[in-house]
Amino acid sequence: MSLLANRAAPRQVAALSKRRGRRGPRTGWRGPLLVAPFFVFFAAFGAYPLYYALQLSFIDWHGGATYRWVGLSNYTYLLTNPDFWGALGNSAIIWLLIVPAQTIGAIVAAGALSRAKLRFKRLLRTAVIIPYVTPLAAMAQAFVLIFDRDYGVVNHLLGMAGLPSVEWLTSTGWSKVTIALLVLWKSSGFALIIMLAAIQGIPGEVYEAAALDGAGPVRTFWSVTVPLMRHAIAFFVVISTLGISQMFLEPYVLTGGGPYNSSTTTGLYLFQHIGASDLGTGAANTFLLVIMVLGLSLAAVRVFRESK
Amino acid sequence: MAYPQDQLLSLTSRRDVLRGLGVLTAGSLLAACGVPTGSDKPAALGSSAAPSAGADVRGQVTLWMRDDDLLKVFRTVVPAFNARYPNVKVDLKGVDINSKLPPALISGAGLPDGSFWEDDQIGQHGEHLYDLTALMAKYRDDTIQFKLDVLTQGGRLVGVPWDTDPGLLYYNDAVLSGAGVDPASLTDYDALLDAARAIKAKNPKARPIPLEQDDTLGMMWYTMFLNQQQGHGLVDPSGNLTLDGEASRRALTWIKTVVDEGLGARQKFASTAQITMLDEQIISLVPWAIWFIFIPQSGLKKTTGQWRVANLPAWTQGGARSGLMGGSSFVIPAKAKNPELAWLFYEFAVYDPEGYRKVFSKNSVYPTGLNTVVPSVKSALDPAKPLVERLPQLGGVDNWAISTKAALDIPAGYTAPTWYGQAAKYLGANLQRLMDGKMSVDEVISRSTADIKKNLIDRN
Questions:
Q1: Mean pLDDT lowest for which of A167-181, A265-279, B44-58, B254-268?
Q2: All domains of chain B, ordered by start, with CATH?
Q3: A156 lies in some domain
Q4: Which pLDDT tens digit goes with each residue over A170-196?
Q5: Strands of chain A, DSSP E
Q6: Interface test with A, best of B99, B215, B444 (most A CBs within 10 A)
Q7: Each residue of B88-135: pLDDT tens digit?
Q8: What domain range includes position A146?
Q9: Which of B17, B32, B419 sits opposite A55 (nearest CB)?
Q10: Can you name the residues that pair with B60 across neighbouring β-strands?
Q11: What is the distance between the terminal CA atoms of chain A, rounded to a whole angstrom?
Q12: How far B214 CA sits from the closest chain A CA (Å)?
């Protein structure tokens, strides 16, 4: 009897597992129910607005009762509009002024700050993060005063050094430089935090091995530290690119996008459409930016992955 | 033994849950297919819709104001309003109106019952606002005409006119007398140029006339010159651009002369640098909106008391000595919950003498009265019954009489095209190039006309 029972047992187990395999455990539907709120919220506040915006990009609509389907007209208008490309060019120049300098500066500073013998290390770490936690609008106003052509302290110092005044905020070339200086001042502390975290994650054994191989501090930094930080560098370049593509407040407060739209960034240009209730063009502008920034970000990630 | 929650959950299967989620998602997408859902043309808020006065009126009304001194001023009106309507609770909120009101109007969510708004912003949102034509009928004759023109969209009056911002001439009396210029001679813009030349001859560092560095404000300044000469602004009553007209060329040529002769100071309005220039007598002749008055009133130290105010010079012999530069009104969203209560408050604050005296006469916010703007109600603009006091900072001149005359003299016929604000990107930027000496008058006209036609008129 027991033998028969024992022989029957594997068949019962197999039948049970087959049934469970087909229909799953009896409580399996509770999982989807528990995660359902996320999907509901995502559908309502993520997917739906995106879908809505995509639809808007094919419509000429200023928020009123009348609207009309215009196909790709909003996209072709933007792609053939010098203002759109001008804003893109301004953002590209600002990117060039900020990202390479900030990335290299943050790597070097993180390397220095991570050295055990550096004095006032804690004080320095605190000092560099202060600008990051200072309200941007307030600092932008301060920059307006500091870089004023006639009464700003920067031109005053240049004058004391016998150098000519610079139209920091009112010339087409320098206005972008001033915006870049504000961003560098504001966000370099954040860049440093990222690089510092990456540097501190490198195992000490790697440095010991490099030392045993006779590598000096400079060689160790460029051949060991920097390559092992490439993921952090890629991350920082990508989020900086995203940030600059959406940059709005800095030019809005410092220059208003001027002079002659020379410091109008892609973010400010987009705002001008939305602010004028030209919602269709604004939506098309958004998707063009998304495509461009996505492409650039993927390219950056690929470059850093291939450098492995 | 099953737990209670198991019994409850067993009533629905996993498939049912997923089906429900699917329905929700599909519903969202189907709803999306219908967007944008435009509203029907809003009904007019007729006089019959307004409730009778007194204690019978009940409810709560939410009104948005610009979050600055004006909010504090209008809060002083509420007790007087409540004395008449004791059962109406007024919730005045300080809001960044230009960023919050347009999306609220479009979506219909979070709307106030009424809101303050700059006149040049109202036009492009007219169809989201109540038509107040019927309610305003009894006040039309007592309202400055150009305010009615500005607020009329397709025959619908979409706002309660509040303030009028005429242009005035502010000048430094000490600088003028030092240069031997009689202020009474500043009756036309050529005389203003001559005065600037005389001042510069006396003090080579002087740049007497401010040339605005902000695109939008620079364009408003130029539009004031147009309104002063031809009544209408950037467009004529038929909607045609007026940039290539005689008035425009005259104004642009005058600005170019200021630039070419080094008579202009390039700074932004009320910036620290401009205030320093005013206080150092570098700037001394300011044809600008009435609201410049706050600078000599509170921003200057060395030259306080030296400033005076007069009516604008004229462009031609016998031409208007006034023009508009700004202005704001109150609007009632078509989807407001309590539009009648909003109307009652605005009617009281704007047209009732008790209400507008509360706003303009001296109060805790403005100890000498609200003098940066003047009412749009003609009966309030009596030179013999000033709502504000004279200022020692302006040498005690009768600024009320000068301001009210300017308000009443603003040429009628002005309309703000729906794209006015966006034109700053083109016309405003080109005016900046002109003021920097990098563009000729002809180039400003031709490029601005082409850009506005291509980017604004053809796309609106």
A1: B44-58
A2: 47-165+326-380 (3.40.190.10), 166-324+412-457 (3.40.190.10)
A3: yes
A4: 999 999 999 999 999 999 999 998 998
A5: 59-61, 67-69
A6: B215
A7: 999 999 999 988 998 899 888 899 999 999 998 888 788 899 999 999
A8: 81-306
A9: B32
A10: B89
A11: 66
A12: 8
